[in-house]
Amino acid sequence: MSMLTPPGMGGKYRITGDKYPRMRQRRRRGRFVFVVVASVAALSLVGWGTLQLIDVFTGGGRTATAAGPKADCATKASPSATATSAASVPEPAQITVNVYNATPRSGLAKDTADELQKRGFKIGDVGNASKEFDKKIKGTGILLGPSSSLNSSLPVLATQLASAERRTDAGRKGADVDLIIGDGFKTLTAKADADKALAALTDPQPTPTSTKKSC
Fold first, then answer.
1. Radius of gyration of the chain (CA)
2. Residues 117, 115: Cα–Cα separation, whole Å
3. pTM of this prediction?
4. Are 76 and 211 a contacting pair, CB within 8 Å?
């Protein structure tokens, strides 16, 4: 009986050849797959943990954005830019006004000039308007001055006749401004109202234009 013959076979059956079932090799493959899956899972857990740590140390920006600003954040108001321009507004005594009448009614230019003088303005020329404006102004009047007067002298003079149209002449020389009386003119703005408007112009109160959150 061959040594390769299983006991009890009596030599009837023999194992020949050099190929045998390799059960242990399959077990090794199964273990290898298990090890790979376990490694991937472990790496995933490590990566997730790393992201959590990053989120903790960076303050959780996404969560804070979704939840909105903190309730105890301070609100700061930015003052209006109007307050910074008050220094460029001249006093009535620093403004020379030429008064011209563009209507058929006589005496308007002189009467208006006298009232402006009482209110502190310097008076220059007084008379009838030029052909460019004579009997061509349908509104209460036109305030005309050089380009430099747009945000200085004209707003001050406008407090005395709020409904007048403001115009500038880029080629005009000097600092004088004109008040050209139109057909719709009746009288200057009441002195009390003009004084309030002038006070608000020369000493404006800052108004909130935007808010900023600081935490």
1. 47
2. 5
3. 0.58
4. yes
DSSP per position, 94-125: G-EEEEEE-SS-TTHHHHHHHHHHHTT-EEEE
Say if residue 155's pLDDT is above 80. Answer: yes
- Provide DSSP, 146-164: EGGGTTTHHHHHHTTSTTS
Contact 132, 155 (CB under 8 A): no
Separation in Å, CA 41 to CA 13, 31, 45, 53, 107: 50, 15, 6, 19, 100
pLDDT of residue 11: 52
User: What is the rounded CA–CA span in Å between residue 115 and residue 119?
Assistant: 6
Q: For residue 183, give the nearest of 117, 113, 118, 105 by alpha carbon.
A: 105
Instruction: Considering only residues 10 and 166, tell me which one the structure prediction assigns the higher pLDDT.
Output: 166
Residue identified by tokens 């230019």 is 109
pLDDT at 77 over 50: no
* Parallel/antiparallel/unpaired status of strands 122-128 and 165-169: unpaired
